[in-house]
Amino acid sequence: MSSQQFVIGIDIGTSSTKSILFDIQGQAIHKQLIEYPLYSPSPLAAEQNPDEVLLAVLNTVKQVIHQSQILPSQILCLTFSAAMHSLIAIDTNGIPLTHSITWADARSGLVAHELQQIPNIHQLYHRTGAILHTTLPLVKLVWLRQTYPEIFQKATKFISIKEYIFYQLFQRFIVDYAIAAATGLLNLATLDWDAEALALANIHPTQLSELVPTTHILQPIHSELADAMGILPDTPVVIGASDGVLSNLGLGAIHPGAVAITIGTSAAIRTITCQPITDPQQRLFCYPFTEHHWLVGGASNNGGIVLRWLRDQLAIADGYESLLSLAAMAPPGAAGLIFHPYILGERSPLWTPDARGSFFGLSINHTKGHLVRAVLEGGLFNLLLTWQALQDTTGTTTQIRASGGLSVSALYRQMMADIFNREIIVPTQHESSCLGAAILGLYAFRILDSLESSAQLIQVTYSHQPLSQNVAIYQQIIPIYQQLLESFLESYSSIAQLQSRLNHSYI
Questions:
Q1: What's the confidence (pLDDT) of residue 454?
Q2: Predicted TM-score (pTM) of this structure
């Protein structure tokens, strides 16, 4: 036992941080999760307290080491995954001037719309692979400058939550290419900060962190923080990447043609290519991972959070299992009830914060079960549209692998297979971003000779084939879903403005 080595994969998420101890064969030994609040001090705000996130990182690492009873000397490395698109303004002393403004913060919606009207702005997308939207730190920077000019002027650095953690650990402002690309400020061709994007944000390269590959190794850790984690200060730390690309790696969807679907609070569908590829219709993002791997895909704001909303509105007290049981009582297609899931606006494939959710076809015969089933199906219909854009842009899909909270449901997995009309494979390890971080750590230390060879570490738990009778039903509904969406698009902006006026008058 004392000679065995381990890797700790750490995933910094929107509502929690997870740390998982893996052996070098990729087997999970212990897991710890600590949640923290998502603050909304004003309408559309979604912020984290950076120090609460830091404390969660320190304590989850400490707990997995304590519970596993391994020696600190057995830790090969720590390696990090993190949610994309966060922004923190930092002063000259390294102190945050803002909370971490997360991807879910939609206060910059008007700014995003204004930026989208700039002539030839599409060229920025093709250089950076990032779509102008409220999620993007580039857009948040413009909003911050316009809304809080005193904070903007005082800031000497603009960083992500992951960079804040690394600054605390190493007293260096450093960022990997994957997280940097998600700012909208990185040039895909040069892997350096894009001059025109910086000019648009009105910032200087010195206000951003040092760029490094995702396999970059740092040490030593600040001694007090190493003690707080129960590890040695000279424990190596692999900087890692974003949660999206590491989820692909942790699912074994690393080869061209392999697609990963992740359903958490939000949802995403992504593939790996051997070169940067952008979408002529600007429906998909493109971010670097390594010099030979690029992530292309789309993310939805409306994943499991929509099911949580429905649970709360239906006052289902005993959790998601009851909701899924209700859904199982309704037939595929929810008896013609169609749900567009855009309760939080939408990223892919619409990229508009004004999108709104809707039930269509509701009749007196529909029950709670139909409502739940329609919500689950509607989220998958939206992902299907993004998948179709992915196939248009990157080529034919050879395999689909799924992970995330909803993938533990057999009903949901079968629904996914039927709607996509493809086999759905679910690996054993649901925490794919943590496993992906661990795999990247093993690759950084050359325990794995290639990322592709990591497939041997991925075990499959479930495989679902599409059922022809269900496929036939969904193929009748999907064109209606699309037709309705096209007709609704013209009204989303109007209804969003009306809701804003009504909300303000009510307040």
A1: 87
A2: 0.92
